[in-house]
Specification:
The structure is a single chain. It contains nine helices and eleven strands. By secondary structure, it is of the alpha/beta class. It folds into two domains: about 150 residues, Rossmann fold, CATH 3.40.50; about 110 residues, Dihydrodipicolinate Reductase, domain 2, CATH 3.30.360.10. The strands form two sheets. Strands 2-1-3-4-5-11 form a six-stranded parallel beta sheet, with helices on both faces. It has a five-stranded mixed beta sheet with strand order 7-8-6-9-10. Strand 1, helix 1 and strand 2 form a beta-alpha-beta unit. Helix 4 runs parallel beside helix 5 and helix 6 runs parallel beside helix 7. The protein starts with a strand and ends in a 5-residue tail after the last helix. The structure holds NADP nicotinamide-adenine-dinucleotide phosphate. The site of NADP nicotinamide-adenine-dinucleotide phosphate (NAP) has 24 residues, from loops.
Length: about 270
């Protein structure tokens, strides 16, 4: 494939508007269509405050893909819309990079089956390089250290809990092995057991939502007399997600099936 044709959903959003120039600058990618509801019908370049790009924003993903053939959908929209977008793309044999958070563990078997049937790839997860490193290194640590918990910190307005990054990390670690539960969890005493955090695939996950935070995810591994903390911090910027998103777009068009986590595309599986 000489040039990968990209449909970008959420092109006027915080992440999407940063991806537009990155896609335009990439010699092997071609931005063929873009989706956002409020500016639908307008020229994407003019909406973003630049010169006309000759790409008219479409109101919905299915319509955009039906109107203009694409090889890959990059989706940075909203948790309430992402499932329908993935389904629409796969129904048309279009690969997907799912940047949008909000997919649940139950969604993945269906997505994996659809992607395999369509012969295209779907990549999900946090697309920052350092988040991918956090996942990769945490999977290695989980092979050796028996106890861990995750704490994620995000801005007060972030609606999905736990964050996609933390939830996915818990599930990835759960696939390595179940963490050893804290002895105190067998007989908790106190009026608020929920203070121990949510149980995600066996891992306790604690979500902090406070003004002053952008985004951070920390996994703390413990064993008698020693502790290891792996933490990724991200500023409120689209920059960290550009490289990983475009890397995944290039890979999903040639690697069919579901790829959960940029780390699996970058570093391959961790031996368990
Ligand atoms: N995976 C990662 O590494 C990563 C990194 C950063 C962010 N995210 C996630 O990516 C998503 C987008 O983040 P953001 O900060 O860019 O959000 P944002 O600034 O609110 O932008 C959302 C974009 O999607 C469009 N949109 C929203 N709902 C839509 C729908 N139903 N159909 C079509 N377009 C729709 C919006 O335009 P209209 O409202 O006009 O339609 C806008 O262009 C969030 O879920 C966020 O958590 C993931």
């Amino acid at each position: 494939m000489d040039e990968v044709r990209v449909c970008l959903a959420g092109a006027t959003g915080q992440i999407g508007r940063r991806l537009v120039p990155a896609i335009l600058e990439a010699a092997d990618l071609k931005l063929v269509s873009a989706v956002a509801r409020r500016a639908a019908g307008s020229d994407l370049g003019l909406v973003l405050g630049g010169a006309s790009l000759g790409i008219t924003l479409q109101a919905d993903v299915a319509g955009a893909l039906a109107h203009t053939p694409a090889d890959v959908l990059i989706d940075y929209t909203h948790p309430t819309a992402v499932r329908a977008h993935v389904r629409a793309a796969l129904a048309g044999g279009v690969a997907v990079v799912v940047g949008t958070s909000g997919l649940k563990a139950d969604d993945f078997p269906e997505i994996a089956a659809q992607a395999t049937a369509a012969g295209v790839g779907v990549a999900t997860g946090n697309f920052s390089l350092t988040a991918a490193l956090l996942q990769h290194l945490a999977k290695i640590a989980a092979r050796h250290v028996p106890e861990w918990e995750i704490v994620e910190y995000n801005k007060a307005a972030k609606p999905d809990v736990p964050s996609g990054t933390a939830g996915e990390l818990a599930e990835m670690l759960g696939a390595v092995r179940r963490p050893q539960p804290a002895v105190a969890d067998t007989h908790p005493i106190g009026p608020h057991d929920e203070a121990r955090g949510a149980d995600v695939a066996g891992t306790r996950v604690h979500s902090v939502r406070l003004s002053g935070f952008a985004s951070a995810c920390e996994v703390i591994f413990g064993m008698p007399g020693e502790r290891l903390s792996l933490r990724q911090d991200c500023a409120e910027s689209a920059e960290p997600f550009v490289f990983g998103t475009l890397f995944a777009a290039r890979r999903v068009v040639i690697q069919p099936g579901l790829h959960r986590g940029l780390d699996s595309l970058l570093f391959g599986p961790v031996e368990t």
